[in-house]
Design goal:
The protein is of the alpha+beta class. The chain has a domain at 8-54 and 75-81. The protein has one helix at residues 11-29, and strands spanning 36-41, 47-52, 79-82. Strands 1-2-3 form a three-stranded antiparallel beta sheet, covered by helices on one side. A hairpin with a 5-residue loop joins β1 and β2 (47-52). The longest helix is centred in the N-terminal third of the chain and has 19 residues, at 11-29.
Length: 86
């Protein structure tokens, strides 16, 4: 999925608004177990990015995943890049 956001914000306002949008999207996406990368590049060339890996796949022969298994651990990693180039 690719989303483009075009606005009439000034360059300065984009730099202030981008981290707010990034946090809001990360909060929304934290509710579902997916791997994602959100990248915002402002007109000034600043890059704001956050990513997370989804849960590790279970190595079970069963077709039903047992969520009550205390050994089942979800892993995630988040990375925020503020400024610079990718």
């Amino acid at each position: 999925m690719e989303i483009r956001f075009i606005s009439s914000l000034t360059d300065h306002d984009e730099d202030r608004f981008a981290p707010i949008v990034l946090r809001a999207l990360a909060d929304l996406l934290s509710k579902i177990p997916i791997t994602y990368v959100v990248r915002i590049e402002t007109t000034d060339g600043k890059i704001f990015q956050r990513s997370r890996t989804g849960p590790e796949p279970t190595h079970s022969t069963s077709t039903r995943r047992d969520d009550s298994d205390p050994c089942h651990v979800q892993t995630s990693r988040e990375k925020v890049v503020d400024g610079g180039s990718y």
